[in-house]
Amino acid sequence: MGRTLQNTMINLGLQNACDEAVYQLGLDMEELEEIEEDAGLGNGGLGRLAACFLDSMATLGLAAYGYGIRYEYGIFNQKIRDGWQVEEADDWLRHGNPWEKARPEYMLPVHFYGRVEHSASGAKWIDTQVVLALPYDTPVPGYMNNTVNTMRLWSARAPNDFNLRDFNVGDYIQAVLDRNLAENISRVLYPNDNFFEGKELRLKQEYFVVAATLQDIIRRFKASKFGSTDSVRTVFDSFPDQVAIQLNDTHPAMAIPELMRIFVDIEKLPWDKAWDITKRTFAYTNHTVLPEALERWPVDLVEKLLPRHLQIIYEINQRHLDHIASLFPNDVDRLRRMSLIEEGDTKRINMAHLCIVGSHAVNGVAKIHSEIVKTQVFEDFAALEPEKFQNKTNGITPRRWLLLCNPGLAELIAEKIGEDYVRDLSQLTKLHEFVDDDLFIREVAKVKQENKVKFALYLEKEYKVKINPSSMFDVHVKRIHEYKRQLMNCLHIITMYNRIRRDPAKLFVPRTVIIGGKAAPGYHMAKMIIKLINAVAQVVNNDPMVGSKLKVIFLENYRVSLAEKVIPATDLSEQISTAGTEASGTGNMKFMLNGALTIGTMDGANVEMAEEAGEENLFIFGMRVEDVTELDRKGYNAQLYYDRLPELKQAVDQIKSGFFSPKDPNLFNDVVNMLFHHDRFKVFADYEAYVKCQEKVSELYLNSKAWTKMVIRNIAAAGKFSSDRTIKEYARDIWHVEPSNLKIPPPNEPRDAGQDKTPNGTAA
């Protein structure tokens, strides 16, 4: 979520009033804002996407809740020591959190372990361990519409009789200390992005958020006029018409068997009725196609932790496979491929398969990604139910990612096309009229220059390096991962360095290359990549032959509040994943909206950005998905490229020989060995095209006016990438709710009794 103060002032229309009031108190609002800690309760794009979605849902007047875990320790703070990443605990609650309100009156029990007892009256899950889920509510204000939604985060608490009612009876002190075991569930965020780590504590976290949330939803449903009771039981027929639950990746997949357990075991609904309601309630968003990221939980672990849920999953699978066998008799291989259970050394549950079978809609997050989901990753399921599969291209909130972080540009746009674009970003197309307006061109360039000077001062303060603010700010910020190919950027830096040294008199367009992002603590290769970038920076930044022509900076502790500083100052946005690996990306959209040009592959939302702005207004290079597939078919041989491209050979040889690590010449052996022998993401295959494309970038940068005109064309084409548009599509195609443009009267004005009623009851 990042910081909340400035976003709240903007959405409430109070920023200028607050700035003025604080100034009159002799304080500086910007200094105050810098004191707030980021809420870093997710890893990367997926968590930030949820935050943008919450802003858009409130702005569109949807009755929507965001549910998650209130981690005591969020994503680690990254320190760079001697070029290496070192992790520190993110004690973000140290000084308290003024935005949250604990709601002990809504505390709920969550059960673990135990066993299942079957009887005539049905299944009973008994002898469980109980953990309490304590909700904390954070307000989510819509933009200037007096709507305030809720983000509810659950914190784990031990019940007061924890360990005192059974085995630790004699040792009171130890029993109280053991309360930590229960409360550890919400202690810390697992720091992996695009990687599955099958740990018991992680499964506990996933079930914890799911069980608490579903109880909360059902409590709210029963309290509404829809959950009408006929003396004996609640009628759940209208449940899917009143409730829509969107699964953000497979992490909350246990919600499907949990809702079935509630309906069948507790509410005593017949299975078929319960399953129909469940399917119509859930929809699933897939966020990655990398096989190592797909959740596959060992059956043994689920059996121990959630024995009743395993039985329900088996029953879902049995009925699912019976259905497929009836459609495709004797096709045992299809049954194996489509089963929720994977056989092997250890039996595992494929959570993506569970989500597909248990949802009425499945979507990818960019056109190209949704196609890959349909035709490759889940092709058997899409063949069975093609109408279930959709696309919903990601977006970003223009409130945080333009108004808040780039007020100069936001104001300049408002002067030309009015202020309405903030709620309807498609209006940015009106800027096409000003693409040849010399004054506007100069003003856009001036805002960018001011942002660069401000960021250069920040860098000089934090990193003690002299930055040339007229150099091209070439920025690559995102989680460190092999598929995102920070290594390819690194090879380009080394190539530029070698060209400057080879011919110091030759014209060189000065660059400041900024790379930032966190590596998962257990991801050895990602940590080596950070060390390599810092080692190259050490050499480049201290070579007098290079001077101010080339500077390399690794941005420490990249997070939302730092993104808000660097993105508005960026000239060139690096989006260079191997085609077919980045589901969408959202940083790409933030840079586009903030007046940077994109160098990128035809991957994720880059494809649609090129479609909107015209491919000639992005720097597109490298293999397309088809080329990657073809290269896989032929077999990728890295050595071929090394032998054919002298500049690539020189750069790789320098890394290999210890040119960048003279004290330990073998330091980067693992990296070089990977690049030659098991590079799944084919860095060498795109190197030549990338370097050539970068030459075109430098050439255009020399022509400031032509560059800025291309920037304006990009901003004018960025409207599609508002999360408001994305959420309208979810609302229309999946949740079946109508967004409302109505501005609720403020609390100090009386309102009609009739206006109290929500036009549509469904809550997402």
Indicate the CATH architecture of one domain.
Answer: 3-Layer(aba) Sandwich
Strand content: 5-15%
CATH class of one domain: Alpha Beta
Radius of gyration: 27 Å
Helix content: 40-55%
Compute the number of helices.
Answer: 31
Would you tell me the overall average pLDDT?
A: 95
* Major beta-sheet overview: 6 strands, parallel
Q: What structural class do the secondary elements suggest? A: alpha/beta
Number of strands: 24
- Distance from N terminus to C terminus (CA atoms, Å) equals 19 Å
Please, what is the CATH homologous superfamily of one domain?
Glycogen Phosphorylase B
**What is the topology, as strand order, of the major beta sheet?**
21-20-19-22-23-24
Task: Pick out the low-confidence regions.
Answer: 753-761
Shape: globular
CATH level 3 topology of one domain: Rossmann fold
InterPro entries: Glycg_phsphrylas, Glyco_trans_35, Pyridoxal_P_attach_site
EC number: 2.4.1.1
Organism: Certhia familiaris
Catalytic activity: [(1->4)-alpha-D-glucosyl](n) + phosphate = [(1->4)-alpha-D-glucosyl](n-1) + alpha-D-glucose 1-phosphate
